[in-house]
């Protein structure tokens, strides 16, 4: 990784150096309400030039459940080749514990995560394992809301599987808590939590495998570019697998990372990255071609 990231005017500046893109969804492609201007054109142009785009998301649902949301937001299917989610990775863990009583901590919209499994769902008082996909109501609740529940689970040493490592996401300009914040709160009081998705290796292994099927062979990490807006998940994950990293500064770190008025302040960006332990190869305000 370079010590100072390159400020790009568009993805076209570095596109020829990469055959494969792992692109984050929430915060890079959309904010939960609308697709950002220029994103679809950028991804479509990259694919037209021969590149492969795999959307790699910490969504706590299977990939096929993400497609209708993207369709609803108006993202053309011509912009991506495949989708891999933390929900896909989580399902392998659910399969191993499906015989146990499972408490689903999260909204009903995430129930597709359990489709195909014969599961005995239980409440928190009877559960043998917790699968956390988020908060029941992320518009009003915080991780602190769940402290009594987590303490009761800890007293019985109930393990947790976290289907979304993200701590927060920006939903239409409002930061909301995600499953990762609950898992971190549980770990903080001594609970056991298995966390699926970025920045951990299994989701990237799955993404590389899908890409190899599409491209007819493996793509080396050095010819792969991870695009994301999170230091904790996207940049850390890219560094761990040795691929290139493009940081989108207008995402969850916008206030800290020097993003403003459609540009990036290099001084503020450098200060932000100084103690993060990872430095992206390149930075853009938003993903455009």
Automatic annotation (TrEMBL):
Keywords, sorted A to Z: Hydrolase
SUPFAM superfamilies (UniProt xref): HAD-like (SSF56784)
UniProt name for this protein: HAD superfamily hydrolase (TIGR01459 family)
GO molecular function, one term: hydrolase activity
UniProt-listed NCBIfam families: HAD-SF-IIA (TIGR01460), HAD-SF-IIA-hyp4 (TIGR01459)
Pfam families the record matches: Hydrolase_6, Hydrolase_like
Provenance organism: Labrys monachus
């Amino acid at each position: 990784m370079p010590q100072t990231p390159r400020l790009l005017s568009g993805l076209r500046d570095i596109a020829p150096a990469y055959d494969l893109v792992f692109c984050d969804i929430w915060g890079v492609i959309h904010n939960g309400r609308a697709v950002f201007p220029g994103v679809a054109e950028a991804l479509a142009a990259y694919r037209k030039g021969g590149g492969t785009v795999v959307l790699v998301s910490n969504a706590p649902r299977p990939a096929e459940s993400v497609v209708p949301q993207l369709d609803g937001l108006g993202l053309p299917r011509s912009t991506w080749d495949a989708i891999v989610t933390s929900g896909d990775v989580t399902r392998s863990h659910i399969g191993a514990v499906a015989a146990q009583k499972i408490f689903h901590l999260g909204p009903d919209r995430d129930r597709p995560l359990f489709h195909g499994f014969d599961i005995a769902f239980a409440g928190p008082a009877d559960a043998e394992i917790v699968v956390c996909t988020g908060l029941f109501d992320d518009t009003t609740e915080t991780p602190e809301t769940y402290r009594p529940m987590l303490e009761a689970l800890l007293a019985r040493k109930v393990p947790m599987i976290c289907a979304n490592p993200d701590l927060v996401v920006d939903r239409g300009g409002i930061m909301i808590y995600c499953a990762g914040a609950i898992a971190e709160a549980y770990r903080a009081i001594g609970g056991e939590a298995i966390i699926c998705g970025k920045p951990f290796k299994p989701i990237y292994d799955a993404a590389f495998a899908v890409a190899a099927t599409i491209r007819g062979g493996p793509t080396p990490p050095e010819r792969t570019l991870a695009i994301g807006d999170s230091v904790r998940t996207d940049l850390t994950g890219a560094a761990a697998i040795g691929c290139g990293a493009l940081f989108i500064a207008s995402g969850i770190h916008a206030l800290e990372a020097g993003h403003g008025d459609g540009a990036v302040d290099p001084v503020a960006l450098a200060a932000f990255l100084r103690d993060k332990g990872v430095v992206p190869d390149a930075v853009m305000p938003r993903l455009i071609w």
